[in-house]
Amino acid sequence: MVGSEKKSLVFAYYVTGHGFGHATRVVEVVRHLIQAGHEVHVVTGAPDYVYTTEIQLPRLFIRKVLLDCGAVQADALTVDRLASLEKYIQTAVLPRDSILATEVEWLKSIKADLVVSDVVPVACRAAADAGIRAVCCTNFSWDFIYADYVMAAGYHNRSIIWQIAEDYSHCEFVIRLPGYCPMPAFRDVIDVPLVVRRLHKTREQVRKELGILDSQKVLIYNFGGQPAGWKLKKEYLPEGWICLVCGASEDHEVPSNFVKLPKDFYTPDAIAASDVMLGKIGYGTTSEALAYKVPLVFVRRDYFNEEPFLRNMIEHYQAGVEMIRRDLLIGHWAPYIQRAVALKPSYDGGVNGGEVAARLLQDTALGQYHASHGLSGARRLRDAIVLGYQLQRIIGKDIAIPAWYSLAQNELSSRTQLPNKEVVDNSSLTKENDYFAILHGDHQGLPDTLGFLKSLAEIQSSCSPQNNNKFQTREHLAAAAMFNWEEEIFLSRAPGRLDVMGGIADYSGSLVLQMPTREACHVAIQRNHPSKQKLWKHAQARQPKDGCTAVLQIVSFGSELGNRGPTFDMDLSDFVEDGQPITYEKAYNYFARDPAQKWAAYVAGTILVLMTELGIRFEDSISILVSSGVPEGKGVSSSAAVEVASMTAVAAAHGTTFICRIPCSTTTTNFSFIMILNLYPQTTPLSQIHLIVCHILYDFSVLTLGI
Question: What terms describe the molecular function in GO for this protein (predicted)?
Answer without folding.
Answer: ATP binding
